[in-house]
Amino acid sequence: MTAHNTAKLHEIPEGADRRGLPAWTYRSAALFDLERRQLFLTHWQLAGHASDLPAVGDWLTFDLLGERAMVIRGRDGTLRAFHNLCRHRGARVVDGAQGQCKGALVCPFHGWVYNLDGTLRGAARPESFGAMDRADFGLKPIEMQIWHGFLFLRFAPGPQPDVAVWLAPFDADFRGYRTAGVLPVQVPDWSTTLPVNWKSVRDVDNEGYHVAMAHPALQDLYGRSYRDMTLPDGLSHSTAEFGDQPGRRWSVKHYVKLAPLQAWLPAHLQKAWNYYGLFPNTVIAFTPESVMFYQDIPLSAGQTRLTGRLYRHPQEDRAMRAARHLAYRIDRETSAEDQQLIVWSNESMASSAFEGFHLSDLEHGVRAHHDQLRQVLPVTRLEDAPPEGEMASLNEKLLKDAARSGLT
């Protein structure tokens, strides 16, 4: 099935607004504060994989918009998530992206000691605190669910169901990829910070219309078969098959030549690259040799960090490793191309000449993402920016109006 024919399944209705979100939504500090409280902190965020924490005492951290999380493997082998915040003065209990502690967590500020299950073992100079029950001062837990090995965190209750229910449409493919058993790969830090609003990152990543023009390596590898599909509840799936042509570019030619057939994979995954989009800001991507996730972490209304992690299969042989390196090379080249497009797209939001997008049916993924945002934050439906000081109250009114009319 061609990308064009698949897009016909997702035609933007005749007469519908093809302009997308208005430009002000990419610049407003008040809207960004709403996004922080009512979108990012209340929706599932992907922090890593269980294989990142193989041993007792292993930990990793995940920071998001003023919240600091840590996941740690306890003595009983259980993974638990906590706020990375000492109950004494709020210092980070652990510092860095990930690491290992032996026996206990010791706050570097005043030396409070926590067990690996988050309970307080003891405070330094306990006599100086008077009557203090240690049971009341354990690390504060964060909601975490593990799905096919992936660690999902949520800082506050929100509208999304349990992860297994939400991601059920992807269950068969993830089971086919055996993601519960993948192992982390140490690669040079691919995190980068762009001077853009996070939605500009999603706008570029949520459609394949630009692949033919902007991504010569991907077009060479699989552009003829690439197709985007949108699903309910903010999910999307993009897929493409490779191997029907030998490839002209160096990385593509050698990848197609060297990539061994993975007979253990279901047939529809053996010669495909797949991307599974998770609202609001995460994609889990697969080649037959590797698994990665990437996400855009908003820092402010005009600054976003792009980051992610890479994994391999435990049975990796030399040919698989070579193919994985080539796939990663293609992906890094594609990411660099996308970053320039993201900056240009975001810059246009400040121009007096910008009158909104004019979306193709092939950009239905952008429209679907915007529609999901409009549902969570109906104030984004307004063409003109409301006063910054009235943003939150107006959004609350619109939510109540929609609930009364049955639109949500």
UniProtKB/TrEMBL annotation:
Protein name: Aromatic ring-hydroxylating dioxygenase subunit alpha
Native source species: Fertoeibacter niger
A Pfam family this chain is assigned to: Rieske
PANTHER family for this protein: CHOLINE MONOOXYGENASE, CHLOROPLASTIC
InterPro entries to which the protein is assigned, alphabetical: Rieske_2Fe-2S, Rieske_2Fe-2S_sf, Ring_hydroxy_dOase_asu_C_dom, Rng_hydr_dOase-A
Domain of life: Bacteria
PROSITE patterns per the UniProt record, alphabetical: RIESKE
Cofactor: Fe cation
Signal peptide: none
Rieske domain span: 44-153
Molecular function GO labels: 2 iron, 2 sulfur cluster binding; dioxygenase activity; iron ion binding
Keyword Metal-binding: yes
Keywords: 2Fe-2S, Dioxygenase, Iron, Iron-sulfur, Metal-binding, Oxidoreductase
